[in-house]
Amino acid sequence: xxxxxxxxxxxxxxxxxxxxxxxxxxxxxxxxxxxxxxxxxxxxxxxxxxxxxxxxxxxxxxxxxxxxxxxxxxxxxxxxxxxxxxxxxxxxxxxxxxxxxxxxxxxxxxxxxxxxxxxxxxxxxxxxxxxxxxxxxxxxxxxxxxxxxxxxxxxxxxxxxxxxxxxxxxxxxxxxxxxxxxxxxxxxxxxxxxxxxxxxxxxxxxxxxxxxxxxxxxxxxxxxxxxxxxxxxxxxxxxxxxxxxxxxxxxxxxxxx
Length: 257
Known about the structure:
Blueprint: H1 4-16, E1 26-30, H2 33-43, E2 55-58, E3 63-67, H3 72-81, E4 89-98, E5 108-117, H4 135-147, E6 152-160, H5 169-178, E7 182-184, H6 187-196, E8 201-209, H7 220-248
Parallel strand pairs: 1-3, 1-4, 4-8, 5-6, 6-7
Antiparallel strand pairs: 2-3, 4-7, 5-8
Helix pairs in contact: 3-6, 4-7
């Protein structure tokens, strides 16, 4: 157990309850168990890993979904473990806080980059290396959003390890200064660790709260309302984009780097 491939194959099975050979070549990532449950019901397939740290499910078309949990350390872990699968692409369906007046509840953010405020990504590359998605994946998602006339924004998001910061006026002033659209806990990490592992990656974030104002801070009630109104659309967008990529078979990465 000194080779990365052997370690990750063993650990991926242990973390997700799924043999690495059983994963599809296109993988959706999420923080939420109800996304996995909705996926499993849609395709009438089982959920693996129940009772463990991560759950997963795979349909007959070679599309998998994994709930890897919350936070940048978990995001780095799953991307490292997926290096043994060598998937064609990985797409994150997460939630974020909207930081601008133009980012309202239920809007989607297709980030062009993420600021690395979480620290985890520093173990992979120096700070000067930008956290960016694979362009081709976001091109597919953008086309689908436009076709369906769905409201969305593009721009930069900020990724942090801080879960509770809404009371911190100094931190909020910093967020205003750097002009970011949204804030989450995983996107920058996923982009950097995807780059480090040679995995094509993307992210579509659902604005679930507007934490810059007191009445916009997420509560159990507000999160439940966002889930009821927008989560089905969110997961269906991810499924459609990844399915279309699989059917068209277009190359995602044009150059070796």
